[in-house]
Amino acid sequence: MAKLAPSILSADFSKLGEEVTRVSNAGADYLHIDVMDGHFVPNISFGAGVMKSLDCYDSAPYDVHLMIEDPDKYIQDFVTEKTEFITVHQEACIHLDRTIDHIKSYGVGAGVSLNPATPVSTLENILSKVDLVLIMSVNPGFGGQSFIEETLTKVKKLVDIREKMSYNWVIEIDGGVNLKNAKTIADAGVDILVAGSAVFGANDVEGCVKEFKAII
Questions:
Q1: Residue 97, CA distances (Å) to 94, 100, 131 in order
Q2: How confident is the model over 27-51, as pLDDT tens digits?
Q3: What positions does UniProt annotate as the active site of this protein (predicted)?
């Protein structure tokens, strides 16, 4: 059974605490925290202060996605009691092995993400150490984009590698996920589905979370 991680990038920031409480109470498994610096991706979102402001709310654990340059400088800032995963991009890390070790040193699950054009083969020498692999199914930077179907080929490759090597990391997908394609994505072997505008843009946010959960 796959899990759901609503991305707060698409939430109403004027009432962010209320928004995360709504999706968490409705059954969301994680809160996906998209951090953008305007350099690695062409958009700026928010920093650790905004994320930590949610600590006092009854919410799901944090699934932190750092879409930033030189992430090692900021990893510690995103570690709280609610942080389950911190994911960095293969394309942003010069010394990815060292960065993975840095994340794990805080007792947090370490993830690595691939942009749509980056092949799975670039992770060959790190897959024995990670806890999560995130496949971007849109070009990162903005919400509301359409799902890139070809990324499911990457998912299949990861599923095959995981089975062959008996790895236990989870596969996550982010970008263009909605109620229409959620089952296909989950059936492909994805363990965590990130959905932003599909959840927070729904007329009935709580109902949408429950529908996602029923589908996946």
A1: 9, 5, 13
A2: 999 999 999 998 898 888 999 999 9
A3: 34 (proton acceptor), 174 (proton donor)
Q: How large is the C-alpha radius of gyration of the chain? A: 16
Q: Which of 67, 78, 122 is nearest to 103 (CA)?
A: 78
On whether 49 is known to bind a ligand per the annotation, the reply is no
Helix, strand, coil tally for the chain in percent (to 5): 35, 20, 40
Domain that holds residue 183: 3-215
pTM score above 0.85:
yes
CATH assignment at residue 134: 3.20.20.70
What is the C-alpha separation between 95 and 52, in angstroms, rounded?
27
32 is in an annotated binding site: yes
Between CA 180 and CA 201 the distance in angstroms is 15
So which residues are the catalytic ones?
34, 174
**Total domain count, the chain:** 1
Residue 34 annotated in ligand binding: yes
- The pLDDT-based confidence of 140 (bands split at 50, 70, 90) is confident
Beta strands in 30-108 (DSSP E): 31-36, 62-67, 83-89
